[in-house]
Design a protein that fits this description.
It is a single chain. With about 600 residues, the chain is of the alpha/beta class. The longest helix has 23 residues. Helix 2 links the parallel strand 2 and strand 3. Helices cover about 35% and strands about 15% of the residues. The protein is globular.
Length: about 600
């Protein structure tokens, strides 16, 4: 046993290692990414770890391993669960042999996601138990319980940390020992083959099983009711930590219920909490999940308790909770006055800092080449999920649509069907191409759709921290694997016109874009240049003040954060510049150059 300062994601990983996990799969996505990376880094040597091509593949690889009796963990963010929903819905009916924990990190805010969807709701939808830790320490201990419950009831379970649990740090007592789980191996049995009749029988078993799990959850140590009074607060997850802090700072009293296992909902615990109460404030993030469960119980048992929360607009519908917002809500609910010792908070408005592509990012060069080539032509630029989504910002303004992973390729096809007179570009990164882009390209080839596919190949999964992907030739087990060629894939699925271009050669890139835009059917440009985070930067460029007219053309065209105005003079910040050379190619006066010029 030893103390370690751990991020929540690291704590989850070490908890899973201690619990005897044998196979860990996933797809990178903030705020979940560090879980799998930590397992790979702290691997005792007998855990198989992989970044799968997407969440569906990750779920299915883990399913095969659990059929053989090993404990498995799958990691993803909340939108990744949408991709994995097909196998997990069927797996809920099939069941598992080895314990299976599906870690889905929710992102209230959202801070780095397309949606604020609530995985607790997916628990209801899939009829799979949900665990909801409130702190990194709790997550470390709770992950082992999740594996135990999974095996006890032969079901996958969802483990739902949110961003502030994933990325908070805490000093945690770590157990160096590891549970030994002996895999029985795969035993042939018809139960592993999903047929309608089996599904019907499994559905009936699940409906009978889940109330038993709910009863079991009543005595689960992390579910608890404390305090007394006529007013109560119901909460769970990180909001429980905020509520405890709020009550402490306000010297507030009342009944408090913490729900650590929101599904199947621990009805018996809630009834104990609701007894003798007049009203309840529900503090939770995202959906009014707990609130609706309590309203249902009050109706079912005819309890005269008023439930307040999101539905009554006593709590906000969207965004994160904070200690400040929860304290204010608790103060209002408990009718607590401001004390004389409390100082008035000074409001400081900080300047906005919009996210921007890094200085020297190859995506900026790719976007700019397309923008110049399409000047004066009707064109729509469909984007995708990745760093390159930032191409929507001024001055580039090169991302007209962005929906979900892989959708840019197919959205471009839909726009073409309505506006065939325009040029439809579909921008997609290398990792996203492998994740869900290939099928969309096949769809375009099959249906003879005029689109220009622009693959932004920067040799990494940059947005989530430079994880390997099928095109990098590396695995999370530390081995060198065969690189999957995007060019060869495109050629094999019928794309006849493909160009590979270095986007930093602006003239050649622009020429290639012009050529591909006039081709009927599917054409493709693969912009190949590594992410500046994985290569040694070139020497910084500089502005020759004697030639510079301060026209700011370089700033207005590129929006590179390394090009700034200092003392009323355009200059290049050498601490940011990575020597990509695009600014020198854009300057109409030849006023920017490298050290050799």
């Amino acid at each position: 046993m030893k103390q370690e300062l751990l991020m929540g994601n690291q704590a989850i990983a070490l908890g899973a290692i201690h619990a005897g996990v044998g196979v860990v799969t996933g797809y990178p996505g903030t705020p979940s990414t560090e879980i799998l990376e930590t397992v790979a880094k702290r691997n005792p040597g007998n855990i198989y770890v992989e970044w799968s091509v997407n969440e569906k593949s990750a779920m299915e690889v883990a399913a095969g391993a659990t059929y053989a009796g090993i404990r498995t963990m799958v990691t993803m963010k909340q939108v990744g669960l949408n991709v994995a929903s097909d196998p997990i819905m069927s797996l809920a009916y099939i069941g598992v042999k080895g314990g299976m924990v599906v870690v889905v990190a929710d992102d209230p805010g959202p801070i780095s996601s397309q949606t604020e969807q609530d995985t607790r709701q997916f628990g209801i939808f899939s009829k799979i138990p949900v665990f909801d830790p409130s702190s990194p320490e709790e997550a470390y201990r709770m992950i082992e319980d999740a594996f135990d419950y999974s095996e006890k009831y032969n079901t996958p379970v969802l483990f739902r940390p949110t961003t502030r649990v994933c990325h908070a740090n805490a000093s945690i007592t770590v157990n160096d020992s590891r549970r030994v789980i002996k895999a029985e191996g795969f035993i042939k049995d018809s139960k592993w083959v999903i047929f309608p009749r089996l599904s019907y029988e499994s559905h009936m078993k699940i409906e009978k099983r889940n109330p038993v799990i709910a009863e079991d959850f009543f005595s689960y140590s992390y579910n608890k009711v404390t305090g007394h009074g006529k007013k109560g607060i119901a909460t769970g997850g990180v909001s429980y930590a905020y509520t405890k802090e709020a009550l402490s700072s306000l010297n507030g009293t009342g009944k408090l219920m913490k729900v650590a296992t929101p599904y199947p909902f621990p009805e018996k615990l809630a009834l104990e909490f609701l007894k003798d109460l007049d009203e309840v404030l529900v503090i939770e993030e995202l959906s009014p999940y707990l609130e609706k469960e309590l309203i249902y119980l009050c109706g079912k048992y005819q309890l005269p308790v008023k439930i307040k929360g999101k539905l009554t607009e006593d709590m906000p519908w969207a965004g994160e909770n904070t200690v400040k917002s929860v304290t204010e809500a608790v103060r209002n609910f408990l009718s607590l006055p401001y004390s004389q010792s409390e100082t008035k908070e000074i409001s400081i408005t900080l300047p906005d800092r919009d996210p921007v592509l890094c200085a020297g990012c190859p995506h900026r060069a790719s976007f700019y080449a397309v923008k110049r080539a399409m000047k004066g032509r009707k064109a729509v630029f469909s984007g995708d999920i990745g760093c390159y989504t930032l191409g929507n910002a001024k001055p580039l303004e090169m991302v007209d649509t962005c929906l979900c992973m892989g959708a840019g390729v197919t959205i471009a096809q839909g726009i073409h069907r309505v506006e065939p007179d325009g040029v439809n570009f579909a921008f997609i990164g290398d990792s996203t191409f492998f994740h869900t882009g290939i099928s969309g390209v096949i769809n375009a080839v099959t249906n003879e759709t005029d689109i220009v596919l622009a693959v932004l190949d920067n040799s990494t999964t940059a947005m989530t921290g430079n994880q390997p992907n099928p095109g990098t030739g590396q695995t999370m087990m530390g081995s060198i694997s065969q690189k999957i060629s995007i060019y060869n894939i495109l050629s094999a699925i019928g794309v006849k016109h493909i160009e590979r271009i270095n986007p930093f050669d602006l003239a050649k890139a622009q020429k290639a874009v012009t050529k591909m835009a006039d081709i009927k059917g599917v054409s493709a440009i693969i912009f190949e240049a590594p992410c500046i985070q994985i290569v040694k930067p070139a020497p910084a460029y500089k502005v020759y003040t004697e030639k510079c007219t301060n026209c700011e053309h370089c700033i207005k065209e590129l929006g590179c954060p390394a090009i700034v105005i200092e003392n009323e003079q355009v200059t290049i910040d050498s601490t940011l510049c990575n020597g990509c050379s695009i600014c020198s190619q854009v300057c109409p006066f030849g006023a920017i150059g490298g050290p050799e010029q």
